[in-house]
Amino acid sequence: MIAIRRLRPDDDRTQFRSGNVELDRFFARYAGQNQFRHHIGSTYVAVEEAILGFATMAASEIFAGALPPAVRKQLPAYALPVLRLARLAVDERARGKGIAQLLLQAVFAQAHTMAAEIGCIGVVVDAKPEAVGFYLKLGFESLGVAEGELGDRPQPSPMFLKLGKIPREPR
Ligand SMILES: CC(C)(COP(=O)(O)OP(=O)(O)OC[C@H]1O[C@@H](n2cnc3c(N)ncnc32)[C@H](O)[C@@H]1OP(=O)(O)O)[C@@H](O)C(=O)NCCC(=O)NCCS
User: Fold this and answer.
1) Which residues on adjacent β-strands are paired with residue 48?
2) 75: CA distance to ligand 1 center in Å?
């Protein structure tokens, strides 16, 4: 059975292979120190003997002007608290089994906790072009591309899921 839990200092992070060397290097080298030493982000892992996936999140903010108009008009015009999904990856050998969805349930539960405790209007992610479809399926909406960012090289696409659309974990 796959367990979703917070990363532990003694977890072996060296065998994880997402097919993206930057994500694997982040996980192996930085996820631990970011969580345990610097307290700048927190990582959930999906574990079944080995680690099959991870999701890293951090408290963040979004300027009201960057939000979709329907959301923006209900809110004050300053920086607003959000939960940022900073990294998400599933091992290539474990794709298509719902592991990313399980990890996101944990992230979503954290967004509701943050909202209740200190404030949070939703979840933001800078989606890789090939993952935009994945986030759209979950109800995220694209926030558009800032001027000057369009070019030949595919850019990450900022996306937002407002709290009211985030399912609560089944109790
Ligand atoms: C994107 C990624 C995290 C998905 O992991 P996964 O565990 O295979 O995804 P799941 O099995 O939980 O899929 C959940 C749903 O999303 C769909 N899905 C998965 N990847 C998708 C994609 N790239 N585009 C569109 N839909 C996708 C699945 O078909 C499934 O749909 P269903 O519920 O209708 O069956 C994984 O492919 C990955 O690690 N990719 C490389 C790193 C990356 O792109 N990370 C995101 C960075 S922003």
Assistant:
1) 50
2) 32
Domains contained in the chain, CATH given: 3-165 (3.40.630.30)
Q: How far is the CA of 91 from the centre of ligand 1 (A)?
A: 11
* Residue whose entry in the numeric block shows the structure tokens 């999140």: 57
Name which residue sits closest to atom 4 of ligand 1, judged by CA. 100
Q: How far does residue 93's CA lie from ligand 1's centre (Å)?
A: 13
Phi, psi (deg, nearest 5) at residue 38: -95, -20
Q: What is the pLDDT along the chain (171 residues), one digit of tens a residue?
A: 999 999 999 999 999 999 999 999 999 999 999 999 999 999 999 999 999 999 999 999 999 999 999 999 999 999 999 999 999 999 999 999 999 999 999 999 999 999 999 999 999 999 999 999 999 999 999 998 655 555 666 789 999 999 999 988 654
